[in-house]
Amino acid sequence: MKNLTIATAVAAGLSAAVLGLAAPAIAAPTGGNADATISQLEAQGHRVVVNRLSDAPLSEASVVGVHKGGDIRSTVRDDFTDRTYQQTVTGSVYYVDVR
């Protein structure tokens, strides 16, 4: 019974962590600095695909749109409970339009 409780708590914690990371990225600002927005998304564990709408360098470009793509799934090892979780969402792909 104790192992089931711990496993449930760990699973709930992992789910909350993934959802907590995704929420700020969805609210990524448009019109902001492209470098900062891309760095913020990558720091949260997401992959970023940049769609350039001009020849401006990223340090001078502005974000015109952020679109969430598919989830990134991988295997996560929990050393505390000695379990491996398959197909765990560990991030997302984001498409960032810059001009």
What does this protein structure show overall?
This protein has one domain (2-98). Strands 1-3-2 form a three-stranded mixed beta sheet. It starts with a helix and ends with a strand. A hairpin with a 4-residue loop joins strand 2 (63-78) and strand 3 (83-98). The protein has helices at residues 2-26, 34-43; strands spanning 47-52, 63-78, 83-98. The protein has 99 residues and is an alpha+beta fold. The chain is elongated. The relative contact order is 0.25. The chain has two helices and three strands. Keywords: Signal. Residues 1-27 form the signal peptide.
Distinctive features:
99 residues, 38% strand, 3-stranded mixed β-sheet, 2 helices, 35% helix, alpha+beta
Question: Quick summary of this structure?
Answer:
With 99 residues, the protein is an alpha+beta fold. It is 35% helix and 38% strand.
